[in-house]
Amino acid sequence: MGQQFFSFGAAFLGSAVESTEALTIVLAVGLTRGWRAPLLGTVAALAALAVLVIFFGQLIVTRIPDSALKLLVGTLLLLFGLRWLHKAVLRSAGVVGLHDEERAYQSTVDQLENATDWVGFILALKGVFLEGLEVVFIVIAVGGTGKGLPVAVAGGLLAMVVVAITGVVVRKPLARVPENTLKYAVGVILTSLGTFWAAEGMGASWPLDFVSIGGLAIIYFGASRLAVTLIRRPTLA
Amino acid sequence: MKFLRAAVREVVGLFVGDWLQSVVIVVILAAGWLAVSRVGAPAVVLLVLLIAGQMIWFARAEARRARKPA
């Protein structure tokens, strides 16, 4: 039950962040050039992503032995999660600028100046596919390894639907979604899940089983705050 | 071909930002794999501390690089 909760939560939060970024691109194209091309691009990208989830999801669940799967997915999840966490630390410390949906929206609008219709299609297709690729990885990794693929798919889809409906209602970039905080949280969760599964794949067993992920999350969160503090500290000349 | 290369770069980019850091993480995991079979639970504790430690190290290193005047 706890495992399924983590899978659902990681997929939901990861998908919420990436869907918000994809929505900005689709809105930028739709509101400036009309909706036909970006909607077609979005549908094409979602279809391609669905094929990836079904193909790799089945392959992982049915073909790869459990311990090898945990080690492989744990390692990939750790690399992926640490990348998010690394960026989150640099953003929190003020080294890298925060992700800004208003700026991303304006940048997409600028690309559309004097562009033909198919550019709108390609921009939406590329934006939704690339942002969705990260969601696909999170869903397959957390769902496939924890034997909770349907739960992870549900988490990913639910976030996508919630973000899409919100976008249709407000008709502007969701700049108030706390994306940077969500990315920080997802980075901590994925790094913890990756460590948990990689170690299980190595043959280690965790005290209190899945509850250990909470302990790992506390350690990684603490380490990330320490990194932020050290980076912010003025260096002695 | 150009599209394929770009797609591969995107997929690799999901997992690798800094190649050195990624190699360090993989080396830590490989060492952890060897150690877990011999030492057991203490190896896992060391594994977690090393992963957390490298995260702090590489974040500080990038911050220093970013602040260094060109």
Order of helices and strands of chain B: HHH
Number of strands of chain A: 0
Proportion in helices of chain B: over 70%
Number of helices of chain B: 3
Oligomer: heterodimer
Distance between the termini of chain B: 35 Å
> Biggest interface between protein chains, with counts per chain?
A-B, 39 and 33 residues
- Structural Rg of chain B: 16 Å
Strand proportion of chain B: under 5%
Task: Output mean pLDDT of chain A.
Answer: 85
**What share of residues of chain A is helical?**
over 70%
Major β-sheet of chain B, in short?
A: none
pLDDT averaged over residues of chain B = 88
Strand content of chain A: under 5%
Q: Which spans of chain B have pLDDT < 50 for at least 5 consecutive residues?
A: none
Describe this structure in words.
The complex is a heterodimer of chains A (237) and B (70). Chain A is mainly α. Chain A has one domain (1-231). Chain A has 8 helices and no strands. The radius of gyration of chain A is 19 Å and the shape is globular. Chain A starts with a helix and ends in a 5-residue tail after the last helix. The mean pLDDT of chain A is 85. Chain B has 70 residues and is mainly α. Helices cover 89% and strands 0% of the residues of chain B. Chain B has 3 helices and no strands. The relative contact order of chain B is 0.10. The model of chain B has no long low-confidence stretch (mean pLDDT 88). The chains are: A mainly alpha (237), B mainly alpha (70). The interface between A and B is large, with 39 and 33 residues.
Q: Could you give the topology of this structure?
A:
The complex is a heterodimer of chains A (237) and B (70).
Chain A: H1 2-33, H2 36-63, H3 66-92, H4 101-111, H5 117-145, H6 149-170, H7 179-201, H8 212-232
Chain B: H1 2-15, H2 19-39, H3 41-67
Helix pairs in contact in B: 2-3
Identify the notable features of this structure and list them briefly.
heterodimer, A: 237 residues, mainly alpha, 0% strand, globular, B: 70 residues
